[in-house]
């Protein structure tokens, strides 16, 4: 099955309904894109859960080593890792309660997409969540 991005209205619904975003690959370094995007989403009212085994906390939140170790529910998985890691992250994703998998701009993997769709996920790849938020919700 070829990747098909959700439409603008579906992305808007996802962003309006979500309250918590688990950010895989979130850095604690302010100059990194992952930090800047997650901070902007936090400022927009979302709870951010860092997922990165290299850090203890960032943005005032405890960091977890993997998605499966996060102790609370989250709505969106936002990924800041290279495309070749998406299949492994997708396998973790299906073990969570989340149903939205969002890979940042430049990040795409067809096999991960197919696996996630087969497991009932809304999948958005190669799209910045902050840009989508500003386009669809306009904050």
Write up this protein:
The protein is an alpha/beta fold and 139 residues long. Helix content is 33%, strand content 18%. It has helices spanning 8-17, 33-43, 86-93, 110-118, 129-136; strands at residues 20-24, 47-51, 57-58, 61-62, 76-79, 100-103, 122-124. The strands form two sheets. It has a five-stranded parallel sheet with strand order 2-1-5-6-7, with helices on both faces. A two-stranded antiparallel ribbon has the order 3-4. α2 links the parallel β1 (20-24) and β2 (47-51). α3 runs parallel beside α4 (110-118). It is globular, with a radius of gyration of 14 Å. The chain starts with 7 loop residues before the first helix and ends with a helix. The mean pLDDT is 96.
The largest β sheet comes out as: 5 strands, parallel
Beta content comes to 15-25%
Give the SSE string.
Answer: HEHEEEEHEHEH
Which range best describes the helical content: under 10%, 10-25%, 25-40%, 40-55%, 55-70% or over 70%? 25-40%
Class by helix and strand content? alpha/beta
Concise structural overview:
This protein is an alpha/beta fold and 139 residues long. It has helices at 8-17, 33-43, 86-93, 110-118, 129-136; strands at 20-24, 47-51, 57-58, 61-62, 76-79, 100-103, 122-124. The strands form two sheets. Strands 2-1-5-6-7 form a five-stranded parallel sheet, with helices on both faces.
């Amino acid at each position: 099955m070829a990747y098909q991005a959700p439409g603008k209205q579906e992305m808007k619904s996802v962003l309006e309904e979500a309250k918590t975003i688990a950010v895989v690959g979130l850095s604690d370094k302010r100059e990194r894109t992952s930090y800047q995007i997650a901070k902007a989403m936090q400022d927009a009212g979302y709870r951010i859960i860092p997922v990165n085994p290299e850090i203890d906390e960032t943005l005032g939140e405890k960091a977890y080593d993997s998605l499966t170790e996060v102790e609370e529910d989250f709505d969106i998985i936002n990924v800041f890792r290279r495309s070749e890691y998406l299949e492994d992250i997708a396998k973790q994703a299906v073990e969570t309660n989340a149903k939205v998998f969002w890979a940042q701009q430049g990040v795409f993997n067809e096999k991960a997409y197919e696996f996630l769709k087969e497991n009932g996920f809304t999948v958005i790849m190669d799209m910045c969540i902050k840009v989508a938020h500003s386009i669809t919700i306009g904050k």
